[in-house]
Design a protein that fits this description.
Elements (H helix, E strand, L loop, with lengths): L4 E3 L14 E4 L15 E4 L6 E2 L2 H7 L17 E3 L5 E2 L1 H6 L19 H4 L6
Antiparallel strand pairs: 1-2, 3-4, 3-5, 5-6
The structure holds zinc ion (3 copies).
Length: 124
């Protein structure tokens, strides 16, 4: 719970090597909205190319509508594990959505309910 920071978009949180904004973000990319042990995932948004812990952070901190990554763009490294800080591709995430392909930290499977905020999954 320490070192929570709110970083307005589009700005860099100096703790991360990538552009990342969010509400009350901890050092493993949990946020004010998703704060469980498994909520250690940040997603780069197609619209502004900035990482956010969740779509609610994006909605709160930006003034534009988010857009989805198209299925043809799923090879882009748009996923960040907040635990080991590895970036990996959307298709890797969709395939191994239970855990980080690098450090095996568990991810929140409930995120799948929100994939349509981030990814064009209809045709997947
Ligand atoms: Zn955006
Ligand atoms: Zn959030
Ligand atoms: Zn990891």
């Amino acid at each position: 719970m320490s070192d929570r920071r709110t970083t307005p978009a589009i700005a860099d949180d100096s703790r991360f090597a990538v552009s990342l904004s969010g509400c009350q973000v901890d050092s493993e990319t949990r946020c004010a909205h998703w704060d469980g042990t498994r909520d250690v995932l940040a997603i780069k948004f197609q619209c502004c190319k900035c990482f956010f812990p969740c779509f609610q952070c994006h909605e709160t901190l930006t003034e534009h509508e988010s857009t989805q990554w198209l299925s043809t763009e799923f090879s882009k490294e748009a996923i960040l594990c907040g635990h080991c800080r590895t970036q990996f591709s959307i298709s890797e995430y969709i395939e191994t959505s239970e855990q980080c392909p690098s450090c095996s930290h568990s991810f929140n499977l409930g995120c799948q309910n929100h994939w349509d905020h981030y990814f064009e999954i209809g045709s997947y």
